[in-house]
Amino acid sequence: MLKLANVHKGDILFDLGSGDGRIVVTAAKQFGIRATGIDINPVRIAEANENAQKNGVTGLVQFRNEDLFEADIKDASVVTLYLLTSLNLKLRPKLWHDLKPGTRIVSQTFDMGDWEPESRKWWKATPSFCGGFPRAPRRRSEAWRGTLGALARRISSPSELVTR
After folding, report:
1. How buried is residue 56: exposed, middle or buried, by Cβ count under 10 Å (0-12/13-18/19+)?
2. How far apart are alpha carbons 36 and 23 in whole angstroms?
3. Cα 15 from Cα 127, distance rounded (Å)
4. CATH superfamily of the domain spanning 12-160
5. Model confidence over 86-116: pLDDT tens digits?
6. Domain segments of the chain as ranges
7. Residue 163 DSSP label
8. What's the pLDDT tens digit per position in 68-77?
9. How far is Cα 76 from Cα 157, in angstroms, rounded to an integer?
């Protein structure tokens, strides 16, 4: 996910539904970036904080026990998701409203409905993929129409595509 998002020094990553914090911790450890995990489950937040401590990145990461639909994510340059499609679809308006133009959004396994990704990566070991979704528009009112029109294409099966 981090590779597909082209994470680099200076990015600020938010992982929505961060679970045990592995994406946040890996981003901080590998790229030295600030990263925040948002999860509604306090047990997962405790696991994530323990994970950060074990990996020596507590100064770069934070985990917040919050509802991802209410969380302040406006500072993100990268957003990672591993949420069911139904949640992704409910989250789309928040992403469109809150994120700055150019923010990179990557979803593991589950799509965003008719919001086609700029790129996909399929792994043969699992039927899952990451989609690098269209970046926030220059003008928020554009609602991504130009990008979607240029990218609209359905993939009929995972074997059809390795990368795009």
Report:
1. exposed
2. 10
3. 22
4. Vaccinia Virus protein VP39 (3.40.50.150)
5. 888 899 889 888 988 888 888 887 777 777 7
6. 12-160
7. B
8. 999 999 999 9
9. 32
